[in-house]
Amino acid sequence: MTIRTRCMLALLAMLGPVLAHAQAPSTMNSLAERYVRLVLALGQHDADYVDAYYGPPEWRKQAESARRPVSAIVTDAAALAKDLAAAAPPSSAEEIVRLRHEYLTHQVSALRTRASMLTGTKLSFDEESRALYDAVAPTHTEAEFRAVIDQLEKRLRGHGPLSQRFEAFRQGYVIPRARLDAAFNAAIDGCRSRTMQHVTLPAGESFRVEYVTGKSWSGYNWYQGNYHSLIQVNTDLPIYVDRAVDLACHEGYPGHHVYNVLLEKNLVRDRGWIEFTVYPLFSPQSLIAEGTANYGIEVAFPREERLKFERDVVFPAAGLDPRGAAEYYEVLALVDKLSYAGNEAARRYLNGQIDARAAASWLETYGLFSAPRAVQRVKFIDQYRSYVINYNLGKDMIARYIEGHGGTAANPDRRWELFAQLISSPRLPSGLK
Ligand SMILES: [Zn+2]
To answer: 219 CA distance to ligand 1 centroid (A)?
Structure first.
């Protein structure tokens, strides 16, 4: 080694920190750390808030022992928002760098809203969904649902309210408790193998399934980090055969499990973006998570393929007669057109226009919920509020974005490509243009 080389090395060592500072990532990384710590702090006051965390364990311990008051969190979040605004990248920056900054800005804004709700701020349903999820669901009148209900009236003839006739029709499609695990595993295998044909997942990704009771939701993915998920399936109410593929895709492949695995691989491990080690439930991230999880069912199983898979694999695994599959899915496709009735019930209920009983009755009449399922749904609305829009509006927004960029059903490779890109990037609902 010559002297000259040694001098160059010394110069580089001196310049190192200067270069790093000029490159903004260190600024963004420290803003990201402040965000993660604020999410963990708010989680001390809101048991549902931190959906997943796999960052430094000592940060969580510190949040627990400090248990900072909400007012202090609000003050810090305002300061963080200001510092983030000052750190905006130039419009010439790489797209993913701009998306990172926009993402963090909106996530912090949602955190401030959630914190203010915990201290008594009252928002209308639409104000709340815009502030938390960066989206507002369209409104619908009873008359709009009526046309679909009329079609179903002709299809499910008989006496009594339509929701009860639909419930009676569905009784033939309940997965017996003893067959649940077999049916669910068969569905997971199908969802996973279809996903793996199009999306590269890191080695060692895995999940575990648990059956639970006493929940307001029907299934939940708890991401543990290190490419591992715990998927819980709620058995409080009968589980219909369509739920096997729906849950396996939504919670697993290519839904929540894959979404979290790809964020960990691409953003946390490859780029060192610590903000993705925490997932605050009441934030714009949830519209992307729920929307892609629901749209992912169709991506993995286009209509005809789904029917074939149900007949050949799921119905036999569930011990059901596969000859009933086609009719079942025709009726379900009609009922699915009533999904926005759930948003209407939630909007009216949370805006104080109707009470819990009326909301349940609305769900039965316009959403065809059975009586116990309507009660469970109102509990869900009590717990998660305007979060309900993330499922159907989220799915529709994701579908418009992917199909609008050429990822139509006729072009499945492009559809998978766009889907995988979307769940590997920090794109926001308002960025789905
Ligand atoms: Zn979900």
So the answer is: 7
* Mean pLDDT of the region 131-145: 96
**Angle at the Cα of 120 from the Cα atoms of 117 and 124, rounded to 5 degrees:** 60
**Encoded amino acid at 303, one letter:** R
Q: How far is the CA of 384 from the centre of ligand 1 (A)?
A: 12
Here the tokens at position 55 are 């960052």
Q: What is the pLDDT of residue 24?
A: 62
For residue 304, give the nearest of 410, 176, 155 by alpha carbon: 410
Q: Which of these, 206, 198, 204, 235, lies nearest to 220 by C-alpha position?
A: 235
Alpha carbon of 157 to ligand 1 centroid (Å): 33
DSSP 91-121: TTS-HHHHHHHHHHHHHHHHHHHHHHHHTT-
CA of 3 from ligand 1 middle (Å) equals: 61
pLDDT of residue 222: 96
3-state SS, one letter per residue, for 306-320: HHHHHHHHHHHHHCC
Quote the ligand 1 centre to 33 CA distance (angstroms). 26
Q: 9-27 b/e with 16+ CB inside 10 Å = b?
A: eeeeeeeeeeeeeeebeeb
Residue 28 CA to ligand 1 centre (angstroms): 29
Residue 4 above 90 pLDDT? no
The Å distance, Cα 290 to ligand 1 centre, comes to 5
CA of 248 to the centre of ligand 1 (A): 11
Q: Please give the average per-residue pLDDT across 340-353, as a whole number.
A: 97
Task: Give the span between the Cα atoms of 119 and 173, in whole angstroms.
Answer: 45
d(CA 430, CA 433): 7
How many Å apart are CA 41 and CA 399, to the nearest integer? Answer: 35
Task: Using the structure block, give the residue that is written with the tokens 């991401």.
Answer: 223
Q: How far is CA 13 from CA 4, 19, 104, 146, 150, in A?
A: 14, 10, 32, 72, 75
Q: Compute and round to an integer the Cα radius of gyration of the chain.
A: 24
Rounded to the nearest whole angstrom, what is the distance from the C-alpha of residue 256 to the centroid of ligand 1?
7
Tell me, what amino acid is at 2? T
Evaluate if pTM is beyond 0.90.
yes
